[in-house]
């Protein structure tokens, strides 16, 4: 790399910095999405826990648009569990995406440091 022209080196450094900044921004977005999804899953789990404490004879209603209709408690439990499962799957995907972005950011920082050290 030491025989690269200063101009080419500047462009390379700038590209790496842009990539690193982009990764940092994406990391913040994914962390926010992850936190939101974790909160949603916790709320669903709490609701499911509350529903499991109800008797089958209890009247339970579910929202449909601006209305509420009477629903079977077992259907609501099944729906809540499927929403929890989908949310947990989404959390796993977001966690994987976050890990990949953090690796990209770390690698970009290392490349920047390497370039700066070699040209000092």
From TrEMBL:
Residues 77-104 form a coiled coil. Keywords: Chaperone, Coiled coil. Signal peptide: none annotated. It comes from the Eukaryota. Pfam families: Prefoldin_2. InterPro entries: PFD_beta-like, Prefoldin. SUPFAM superfamilies: Prefoldin. GO terms for cellular component: cytoplasm; prefoldin complex. GO terms for molecular function: protein folding chaperone; unfolded protein binding. Gene3D superfamilies: 1.10.287.370. Belongs to the prefoldin subunit beta family. This is Putative prefoldin subunit 1. It comes from Neolecta irregularis (strain DAH-3).
């Amino acid at each position: 790399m030491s025989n690269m022209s200063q101009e080419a080196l500047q462009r390379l450094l700038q590209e790496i910095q842009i990539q690193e900044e982009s990764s940092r921004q994406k990391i913040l977005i994914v962390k926010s999405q992850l936190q939101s999804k974790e909160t949603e899953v916790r709320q669903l789990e709490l609701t499911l826990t509350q529903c499991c404490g109800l008797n089958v004879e209890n009247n339970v209603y579910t929202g449909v648009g601006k209305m509420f209709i009477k629903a079977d408690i077992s259907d609501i439990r099944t729906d809540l569990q499927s929403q929890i499962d989908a949310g947990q799957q989404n959390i796993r995907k977001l966690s994987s995406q976050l890990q990949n972005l953090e690796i990209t950011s770390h690698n970009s920082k290392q490349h920047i440091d390497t370039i700066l050290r070699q040209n000092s």
